[in-house]
Amino acid sequence: MSILSKEDAQKILNRALSLSQAEECEVSLSGNISGYVRYARNTITTSGAGADVSLSVSAKFGKRTGTATTNELDDASIAQCVRRAEELARLAPENPEAMPFLEPQTYLDSPTYFEATANISPEYRAQVAYEGIQQAESKGMIAAGFFEHSTNFSALANSKGLFAYNKATGLEFTLTVRTSDGTGSGYAVKDYNDVTKFRPKEDSEIAVRKAELSRNPRAIEPGKYTVILEPAALVSDEGLLNNMIFSMNARAADEGRSFFSKKGGGNKIGEKIVDERITIYSDPTHPEIPARTWQSDGLPREKTVWIQNGVLQNLLYDRYWASQKGVKPVAFPSGIIVDGTSATLEDLIRDTKKGILVTRLWYIRSVDPQTLLYTGLTRDGTFYIENGKIQYAIKNMRFNESPIIMLNNLDALGRPERLNGSLVPPMRIRDFTFTSLSEAV
Could you say which of 93, 304, 306, 344 has the lowest number of CB atoms within 10 Å? Predict the structure, then answer.
């Protein structure tokens, strides 16, 4: 299945809408073409490509909604999908919080599609794998990585006249390198919309270098330490800032169920909650992290300031809760941007008298949602710093920490880097709490 143009996608959506007998109908269409290579133990293990398309129909009768999907776009299949959605809607219980579908919206333009990424070849994927494998083998190490790229489109239309369309490209790269004796591990991760910004050789070198440095780690006593958290510790799939953003739900705050709840009722919007050097915002049109400018229900994504100079400015409002509070809905961000400085990671290390460098965190779990306290482990390169230099690798440790406390203990910010669709700087934090050692590498 090819990537459908805006015009072709709209024709299919309009065809589905014309068949609807529901009071309201919403139809979404998406598709992607992707390729990948996976390697482990210095050998490519799987490689392939795929393509898919999906049509989803939501039919609404009053507060009853039914949804059906199909991956066949002939007239008969579309008609069958519409009828199934209507049948399910008639059977569904009423949702007291159901909202009508959106009226037509205005969406920002964002540069999410890059021809060079769409044209990535199997040979290019093999070269990415080669860079990691060759460098690891030359040092007597073992590489395991994954590289995937995709071209996709998404479109949305409803019976009220709303229409939205986006075409995008993207790539994701991760590499873990282990020492042959099993004592050291290094890690690198990158993602881009535009493949011309990707440097697989240099990025593979990062993982190899960290693995080499992390060989034969020493144990140190748990306690409170100054730490330098790399971006992967902040906004990867296992990142502390991700968890904080996920918790910024206005309803939970207004109902007294989160850190963002205000004593006596309401939420903390307008209150200073972290260090004044912290400003966090989202912008789907940012050239470094461009993203689709609407979420799945058609609500526009716009530039939104979440925290400015330490003061909470916004929380996430879905359409129902916004209607209850008489405010404008606030869409979930595609990624976040944290203002930083021009300082490099090396600069932060150089200015650290004693501390710990953390490559990334993993297995993060919530301990207390009221304080945003989380626990988790360091992984793939944890190092002891003294007098501005990395002295030796240390064994991984478990931490108990809140991103709110962490951002109040901010010591220094570095230069923002793209990771996981976000743009964040490395951070030096005082009094980061480690509670125990971990024997895991």
Answer: 93
